[in-house]
Amino acid sequence: MSSHREAPEMAKDPVADSTDVYAFVSPDRPSTVTLIANYIPFQAPDGGPNFYEFGHDVAYDIHISNRGKAEADITYRFRFHTEIRDPKTFLYNTGPITSIHDKAWNRPQFYSVTRIKNGRSKVIAHHLACPPVNVGKRSTPDYAALAKQAVHKVGRRRVFAGQRADAFHVDLGSVFDLGALRPVQNLHLIPMAADAGRNSLQAFNVHSIVLQVPISEVSRKGDVPSDPAKASSVIGVWASASRRKSRMFDKSEGRYVGHGPWEQVSRLGNPLFNEVITPMSRKDEWNASHPKGDADFAKYVDHPELARLLPVLYPGVFPHLAAYHKKRADLNAVLLTGIPSGVVPGFQNFTGAVESDMLRLNLAIPPTGSPNSLGLLGGDAAGFPNGRRIDDDVVAIELRAVAGLTIPLVDPSFTPDGAAGVLTDGTTDTNGGTTKTFPYLGNPGGGFQTEPGTTAVA
Amino acid sequence: MSDTSRRKLLAAGGASVAAGTVGLAGLAGGSAQAAEARRSPTSAKESVVAYVRDHRSHEVRLMVREREVVVHDRDLATRILNAAGGR
Questions:
Q1: 3-state SS of chain A: helix, strand, coil percent to 5?
Q2: CB distance A330 to A338 below 8 Å
Q3: Rg of the Cα trace of chain B?
Q4: Would the pLDDT of A238 be above 70?
Q5: Pick from A62, A212, A262, A368: CA 20 to 30 A from residue B3's CA?
């Protein structure tokens, strides 16, 4: 997964689990940038009676670094609170919910947005309403209308926080069964007939925070950059979740009560970083640390375990990769510093020498009319690893990069193995898809409408 | 985040402030020293969690609202450890 349940501690704390981060110049409003942070993975749409919601005891942050120091120069913090309208019922809703302010919705959620810059905090919005989850045809008969009502304007910004269809796609069942990729599993060490990929995120929802702000609000110089070659055109983006340092169980209230400062428990920049780069023994530590200290994790990027495993799992398929023992300067650039000028003609998203896991977005590169889901690998500089669009196939991109496809960018003497250019897990987004306008992520699957999947033991 | 200015204040105030905050008088078995503790005008007015991570140090961390106050106070740490040990 991009970062769903990617670390031992976070797997036990889904409400604070950052699952995906997206950052892109808005295709329909190119003077703005859209930042998306998803949380709470694997939401079965029928997961009632206590449906999914943001944590009132979690601080959700989207960070922007625009001075090349891998520090949060601007942070948008989202804090939620939940109300119970009728304390006498066990029901999430007591009738059809026809608006986000409908009294029939018994457990509405609201949030504030705080902008933190140069150590100064300013609440820019408060008591913004979330939509309910998509319960079903009777309870939320016009979900699209509810979602639309939950798009709020905050000055020149737009914001939405609530349930969405998970647009990330990956074949978890296969990938974590000894690194198998069904389309090429006939070549696996334990071979089976090649098959189509299965999207393990199919029929699951997430909770999304979607923020659209003017580019000038997040760029280094307060302008709308137009020259892709300038360092000031690039921003770094990551998301995090924090909990109070101490939590005491208050028996009289039957819940935990927080004390002390907020401490980061989850973070996410590049998809799959903590998932498949960081060793299990350090994943929790990584989640609690900050990007500017990622030099401590650089060795896992420079010599990634996955690059060593591929030739073992697919005997004879990756002979060139197997023989390559140099530092992976290509991956270091893609994941930790950004790609400097001179590597890809006309492109750069270098943020300085500080090794740090962030999405890096060159704000001067306009959206593409016909996006290529392989992003920069597909010749589309508006896509990953230049920021990340929702439809970018980051699993295929990162698989191919790790398999050696990007090594020639920094080491022309290397010839990638033929398989490196075609690796894929064979999945696509089979959920709600994307929309052409804000909030871009599709409506979540409904509890009544979604059919349970199938399971098998042998 | 540690609150260094608060820390200095509490470190200077030592056991008096913290004892009032966490109610150590009762925990400490009603010793004469604890009984003399008085609350200062700036003492916490809400619930507080005290954390002694290392029993060999004199550091006590107090969680209050959204702050963490670090106190280096041998007497306070010793009294908390004694109280935790049942004395």
A1: 20, 25, 50
A2: no
A3: 12
A4: yes
A5: A62
Contacts of B47 in chain A (CB under 8 A): 248, 257, 259
The string of pLDDT tens digits covering residues A383-430 is 999 999 999 999 999 999 999 999 999 999 999 999 999 999 999 999
Contact (CB, 8 A) for A215 and A363: yes
What token pair was written down for A370?
Answer: 């016909």
Check B66 against A261: CB less than 8 A apart: yes
Residue B64: closest C-alpha in chain A: A260
Q: What is the spatial order of strands in the sheet that B67-72 belongs to?
A: B48-51, B59-64, B67-72
Q: Give the integer Cα–Cα distance in Å for A354 and A415.
A: 29
d(CA A11, CA A4) in angstroms, rounded, equals: 8
The model's pTM: 0.93
User: Which residues in B lie closer than 8 A to residue A260 (C-beta atoms)?
Assistant: 49, 63-64, 66-68
How would you classify the pairing of strands A18-25 and A32-43?
A: antiparallel
Annotate A276-297 with DSSP letters as a single string. HTS-GGGHHHHHHS-GGGGGGG
Q: What is the ipTM of this complex?
A: 0.82
- Distance, in Å, from the CA atom of B39 to the CA atom of B66, rounded to the nearest integer, reads 21
Query: What pLDDT sits at residue B34?
Result: 53
